[in-house]
Specification:
There is one protein chain. The chain is mainly beta and about 450 residues long. It folds into two domains: about 15-355, Methylamine Dehydrogenase, Chain H (7 Propeller); about 410-453, no CATH class. It has helices at about 380-385, 420, 440-450, and strands spanning about 15-20, 25, 40-45, 45-50, 60-65, 70, 80, 85-90, 95-100, 105-110, 125-130, 135-140, 145-150, 155-160, 170, 175, 185-190, 195-200, 205, 215-220, 225-230, 235-245, 250-255, 265-270, 275-280, 285-290, 295-300, 305-315, 320-325, 335-345, 350-355, 370-375, 395. Strands 1, 2, 6, 29, 30 and 31 form a six-stranded mixed sheet that branches. It has a five-stranded mixed sheet with strand order 8-9-10-11-15, with no helix packed on it. Strand 25 and strand 26 form a beta hairpin. The longest helix is centred in the C-terminal third of the chain and has 7 residues, at about 440-450. The protein is globular. The N and C termini lie far apart (about 70 Å). Pfam families: DUF1899, WD40, WD40_4. InterPro entries: Coronin, DUF1899, WD40/YVTN_repeat-like_dom_sf, WD40_repeat_CS, WD40_repeat_dom_sf, WD40_rpt. Keywords: Actin-binding, Coiled coil, Repeat, WD repeat. It comes from Strigops habroptila. This is Coronin.
Length: about 450
């Protein structure tokens, strides 16, 4: 472990991990015992989805995020695959749509009903048929609506356009044949114009997802990559894997030159795979080891020495996987900048872990909450397929700022009082900022001035 001893100012130097109390955990959850190297957990501000152990076929449960405590043994499940479920991912623009892939070589899209689940769901909204072997990875496009990528053990990555009324889709809009072995990891850059992959041949590839061409390939033999991740818009990638001496290792790469890594960091000699998580708002990297109980976290800098070790969260309970809450689901009043959902199969427990910036003030801390990705697509599926690139839409996390909702149906907009309306009434003077006049209704304003609405 390298240490940078020079003094460096940082708002995140003293970030610490705070596990949830027992009553705020999810207990008696039959977490899967599958050994596939995936997270088996997906989280959004409404639900937590977890792949479960079942007698036949593949299933997962969807639990409301506030329904903590013991789970009913007869709690309804999403049960429609004939083989084990290997990966699940929530639609980033719709909190009630989730995708799953399985050993039965299919990808299924599920719609979660608005009321709480009352019975097991067995019929998906859509079924994607194209792979001839089991499907191990799925990823939603970060900016285009209804674009899904799937990767199977047939060495193919398929691009699906879900903007169709068909219940069964058998023709992907694009098939990427850039690999000669199983893809272990996929990651998009900020606008989704580039796709990075880590393959079982231990190579990292940078791919144009629409053309299907390999733009760069890392053939550096000293680092055997298992997982790869784009670092936001820094034009850098981080990969986790093993060194020539089989030590667990992380490596930092320049997006424009994958010949030699910018940095290699050996961590330890354990055997569990390392999962990287990156927060582009705070430039913090979290490294989680499968079978470990700890979480290492770093701060990434665009200049040398690039990687600054901050601290390590320690626990004696080993994790099988981790779910990650999107930024819009965090508790900003507690200065929470990241939240994990730790799967502990030995205890049938899911434990939330909050990463906290220690500050006394309970007011909104604007310096640690910059504008973040909104739950609204920047592009339609067809626009992206036609070659258009757009950065993700951004939104403030300040309470009351009108965070973009990700519900499938948006409520009707309420009439707002404008500055011109207010200037007609005494006491306001027409000088109130527009963002501050959206809370009172027009009837409230009239009542304040003594007039009948």
């Amino acid at each position: 472990m390298s240490w940078n001893l020079q003094y460096r100012t940082s708002k995140f130097r003293h970030v610490y991990g705070r596990p949830a109390s027992k009553e705020k955990c999810y207990d008696c959850v039959p977490i899967t015992h599958n050994v596939h190297d995936n997270q088996f957990c997906a989280v959004n501000p409404h639900f937590i989805a977890v792949v479960t152990e079942c007698a036949c076929g593949g299933a997962f449960v969807v639990i409301p995020i506030h329904q903590t405590g013991k789970l009913d043994p007869h709690y309804p499940r999403i049960w429609g695959h004939r083989g084990n479920v290997l990966d699940i991912k929530w639609n980033p623009f719709n909190d009630f749509i989730i995708a799953s892939c399985s050993e039965d070589a299919t990808v299924k899209i599920w719609e979660i009903p608005k009321p709480l689940l009352t019975k097991t769901i067995t019929s998906p909204k859509k079924e994607l048929l194209g792979h001839v072997r089991r499907v191990g990875l799925i990823e939603w496009h970060p900016t285009a609506n209804n674009i899904l990528f799937s990767s199977g053990y047939d060495y193919k990555i398929m691009v699906w356009n879900l903007d169709t009324t068909k219940a069964v889709i058998s023709n992907p809009v694009k098939i990427l044949n850039a690999h000669r072995d199983v893809v272990l990891s996929m990651s998009f850059n900020t606008d989704g114009s580039l796709l990075a992959t880590a393959c079982r041949d231990r190579k990292i590839r940078l791919i144009d997802p629409r053309a299907g061409t390999v733009l760069q390939e890392a053939s550096y033999n000293s680092h055997k990559a298992n997982k790869v991740l784009f670092l936001g818009n820094m034009k850098k990638l981080i990969s986790t894997g093993t060194s020539r001496w089989n030590n667990r290792q992380i490596a930092l790469w320049d997006q424009d030159d994958l010949s030699v890594p910018l940095l290699e960091e050996d961590l330890d000699g354990s055997s569990g795979i390392l999962f990287p998580f990156y927060d582009s708002d705070t430039h913090m990297l979290y490294v989680v080891g499968k079978g470990d109980g700890n979480i290492r976290y770093y701060e990434i800098s665009p200049e040398k020495p690039y990687l600054y070790y901050l601290m390590e969260y320690r626990s004696h309970l080993p994790q099988k996987g981790m779910g990650m809450m999107p930024k819009r689901g965090l508790e900003v009043s507690a200065c929470e900048i990241f939240r994990f959902y730790k799967l502990i199969p030995t205890k049938s427990l899911i434990e939330p872990i909050s990463m906290i910036v220690p500050r006394r003030s309970e007011s909104y801390q604007e310096d640690i909450y910059p504008l973040t990705t909104a739950a609204q697509p920047a592009l339609t599926a067809q626009e992206w397929l036609n070659g258009v690139n757009k950065a993700p839409l951004l939104v403030s996390l300040r309470p009351g700022s009108g965070v973009v909702n990700s519900l499938p149906e948006f409520p009707e907009p309420q009439p707002l009082v404008t500055t011109a309306d207010l200037s007609q009434h005494q006491g306001w003077g027409g000088k109130m900022p527009l963002e501050d006049v959206q809370e009172p209704t027009f009837a409230d304003v009239l009542q304040t001035t003594g007039r009948n609405p």
